[in-house]
Amino acid sequence: MLRSAAGFLALNPGAKVATVAVEVCSAAFFADDDVWVGACHDDETITVNGVEIDEDFDISTIDDDDVIGLIGGVFYDNENRYKSLQSIFRKWRKSKKTATNLPA
Of 92, 29, 101, 102, which is closest to residue 60 (Cα–Cα)? Predict the structure, then answer.
């Protein structure tokens, strides 16, 4: 996407382009009790294979090979402190020492 934006800007000097960072994450993140016991999330957009899901979606139905996109969001811990949901995901991903390669 950034290459597309750069190409557009090269052809259209002075134009403005907005980009949105999407974190590609894993269903294991949402299933990990170490992350979620007493915690919750809000104000995010989650996509599964490019399709936006709503709050009634059953996250347990996600397959290991599905691609989950995470845009925005707030993570509230059990003491009602909050951080960005992406930062919590990145911290979780970094803590995992498995053979699985999660996209950066």
Answer: 29
Give the SS3 label for residue 48: strand
Residues contacting residue 76 through CB under 8 Å, at least 6 positions apart: 39, 40, 41, 42, 82
Nearest to 43 by CA among 66, 76, 65: 76
Q: Which domain holds residue 88?
A: 21-95
The number of residues in the chain equals 104
Residues 46-64: pLDDT tens digits? 888 889 988 888 877 888 7
pTM (two decimals): 0.62
Split into its structural domains, the chain has a count of 1
How far is CA 103 from each of CA 42, 55, 79, rounded to the nearest angstrom?
23, 24, 30
Express each pLDDT in 56-100 by its tens digit. Answer: 888 778 887 888 888 888 899 888 888 988 888 888 888 876 555
Q: Going by C-beta distance under 8 Å and a sequence separation of 6 or more, which residues neighbour residue 32? A: 92
